Amino acid sequence: MRFWRKRRKMAKFDPSALPAPKRISLDRAVDEGLLLAEYATRMETKNQVIIGALRGDRDFDVERYADVVRTNLARLADEAQDQALRISGERRHARDTPGLAKGHHDYRRSDVSNLQLREQSYSGLAAKLLELSADDEYVNGIVEAARVAAWEEVGDVVVSTLAEQQEPVDLGDNYAEERLIRMQLLQMEDLEELATQRRHSAPKASAAADGAAGSAAGSTAGSAAESSAPRVP
Asked: Where is this region: Disordered (predicted)?
């Protein structure tokens, strides 16, 4: 004899029963922005190291790539400060605008607190980036990390190519000349292909750098807005 169990009815979803999201701290928003900015800067520097190697640079000039890091950090700081000024204007407008929002960027009085956090996050990020751009130890650390990553990538290409060829080497009288020709072909075929990939990826790294100044402040601060506004600004 079979017994049928009565299914329990699932309770309807009640969004009000969810715990209120915790408001992100200013320090955390700035720290997350710094992580993204550092990653974008390291990727840009790595691309420059690879391109420099393919151009035949025999000596690794630390100061040359340190300038790349400083320039990138300063640019990100300028962009973060511009964002802070823009949000400051939106916050002042929202302060005098009551009611419910009619669109994604239609900020109202209930959004002032969240906009203030975003503004402070951008300003704090800009100040920290400028401070780090003048820190030689920090800058040289990014350069070294970029150098290691660049040579690992180039080395992987060389090893992969040699493994695919697996051609016997004739150690005859013309070995030195033939070896030079093989290495030149390797550089032209494989390393030039890698350079092309680096050039294509450079705009992506730049785009990531452009977004790094605000990704943490905008996305993480948005979770705080859910408890104070009907939508995420």
From this structure: 194-233
